[in-house]
Amino acid sequence: MQEFLEFTLGGIGVGMVYAAVALSLVLIWRGTRVLNYSQGGMAMFTTYVAWLVIRGTGNYWLGFAAALAAGLVLGAVLERAVIRPTMGRSPLNAVIVTIGLLILLEGLAGIIYGGQYRSFPPAFSLHGLRAGGVSLGISPNDLFIAGAVLAAALILALVFRYTSVGLRLRATAFSPGVARLLGIRIGRVLTLGWALAGLFGALAGVLVTPSTFLYPNSMDSIFVLGFTAAVIGGLESPVGAVVGGLLLGVVLSYAGGYLGNDLVLVYGLVVLALVLMVKPSGLFGSARTRRV
Amino acid sequence: MSDLASLAIEDVVAGYGGGPVLRGVSIAARPGTITAVLGANGAGKTTLLRTISGLVRPRAGRILVDGADLARRHPEDVARAGVAHVPEGQGVVTELTVEENLRLGALSRRGAAVRSTALADAYRRFPLLADRKRRSAGALSGGERQILVIARALMAAPRVLLLDEPSLGLAPRMVAQVMDLVRTLRDEAGLTVLLVEQNARSALAIADRGIVLNLGKVVAADDAAALAADVALRRHYLGF
Prior knowledge:
- The complex is a heterodimer of chains A (about 290) and B (about 240).
- Chain A has one domain (about 1-120, about 130-220).
- Chain A is about 70% helix and about 0% strand.
- Chain A has helices spanning about 1-30, 40-55, 60-85, 90-115, 140-160, 165-175, 175-180, 185-210, 220-235, 240-260, 265-280; strands spanning about 130, 135.
- In chain B, helix 3 packs parallel to helix 6.
- Chains A and B meet through helix 6 and helix 7 of A and helix 2 and helix 3 of B.
């Protein structure tokens, strides 16, 4: 019973990181119909920015803020410079470009920072919390991770729902043609979508790296699991991304806990394959067939 | 003629790759008038509207709105220059509510006060939409959707309104309502309207001028009443 509690709470903690990666993928997919394979690479890169700032200033929160800012800028710049030229062409072009970006970012990180594993500090203690002598399987840092992602997701939801910027983002995602005819500069809206995605990716990177070490490939497996979470949620829905992340986190935590930790990534791929076979539109995806 | 025109299209050639759909089309519409654009399927009516609003790039010709050439500008810039294009059929964003659809129409305008005034005006003019503002736009009937997309186009305070088949798929009573609305917009708001219609009879009934397109060329342009009275033309091109 105590194991079960530990696995569940631990799974929720990791699941929030998957949720953040999934949110970043969903933001881009909704706006540009591009699956951004470089999302993990971008998050790795912005985590190096945080690492530099923390090493230079000794202040964790400055590094945290620098990573988020770098994520915003990196997302916007990449959309404008690299993704925009692929729009209106075969979808495969964008796929190849984002895979190329991933290789480029990981190569650059290797050249600039070297390939060695570096430790990255957590915001709060990693020691497990206990309640009345019972280990809960989560640390204060896990609580921070969950709180940070939830807060970011909540702010995003409020912006989407109640602001004119959110209305622009939604209209552009649902009906870009209609949005343009109404005078909405959808190019700017798409840049903003990528910037927000960069922000969520950066958040995931800073939050997860204390438990993975920092190296040029450090976000690869997190990206795959975040992608799985996004697919579970339906790729279209921000709510689906969060739910998918939590579900995947808990399922993998049970699988890792009861079956052994070595194969967690494989279990993740099994979940991905199952979802694609049984319900490819995901839990929150629209059943509507795509417009041609 | 063209310096009096609010909308002037001069020798426009346009298409989608391959041969041109519009093969040298010229139209002039005076401010505060309705021009019916008639013709069979494939005559180029929809392409004409798409070219004016920037969705299709013309290969040649000028598109003047109040004297400014908008040819080869992006759709969002054409919209901001005061041209509202209500496309045929699926213009409603079904994932959004009625109110969100309306607010979308005013997003290109500056100032929160301007936008909320526009929204209040829309609800005053279309009480039907006020009653349904929290509903999903996808839950509206065909006629209600047509009202919504026209109301949304008006949110931007355009000077030129391009309407593509507003009567398509509507019940006869609804068609009459929409046509009445178009006439009211001309009379009260002074809008210059380009009205593409399959339903030539009801379009000519409210229009000031009419033009008939055939295979991408203007084959007739005259006062609406004269076109409606031309039996040979009606039989040959308009089918009534």
